[in-house]
């Protein structure tokens, strides 16, 4: 996203603008977790790209277990980082 922003001075409106120059392909959502820990966002929304504006975006995702310092559960990647 940031490379695209640096080149275009805005974030893309769709994920297709990122493929293949910035990302090889958009990731597919994994099999939903059996324990329901990520049920607050539907599987169809995971890894979906939402362009909030030319200067903002949001990508919701879920972690099934603590990973890289992030706790299990729903998180959102934005231009400001991971919440």
Short description:
The protein is mainly β. The protein has one helix at residues 2-8, and strands at residues 50-53, 56-63, 73-78, 81-82.
Distance between the termini: 16 Å
Strand percent estimate: 15-25%
Counting helices, strands and paired strands, the structural category is: mainly beta
Give me the count of strands: 4
Number of self-contained structural domains: 1
Give start-end ranges of low-pLDDT stretches. none
Count of runs of 4 or more consecutive helical residues: 1
Q: State the helicity in percent bands.
A: under 10%
Overall body shape: elongated
Radius of gyration: 14 Å
Walk me through this protein's architecture.
With about 80 residues, the chain is mainly β. It has one domain (about 1-80). The protein is about 10% helix and about 25% strand. It contains one helix and four strands. It has a four-stranded antiparallel β-sheet with strand order 1-2-3-4, with no helix packed on it. Strand 1 and strand 2 (about 55-65) form a beta hairpin. The longest helix is centred in the first third of the chain and has 7 residues, at about 1-10. The relative contact order is 0.18. The model has no long low-confidence stretch (mean pLDDT about 80).
Give descriptors for this structure.
83 residues, mainly beta, 1 helix, 24% strand, elongated
Topology overview:
Elements: H1 2-8, E1 50-53, E2 56-63, E3 73-78, E4 81-82
Antiparallel strand pairs: 1-2, 2-3, 3-4
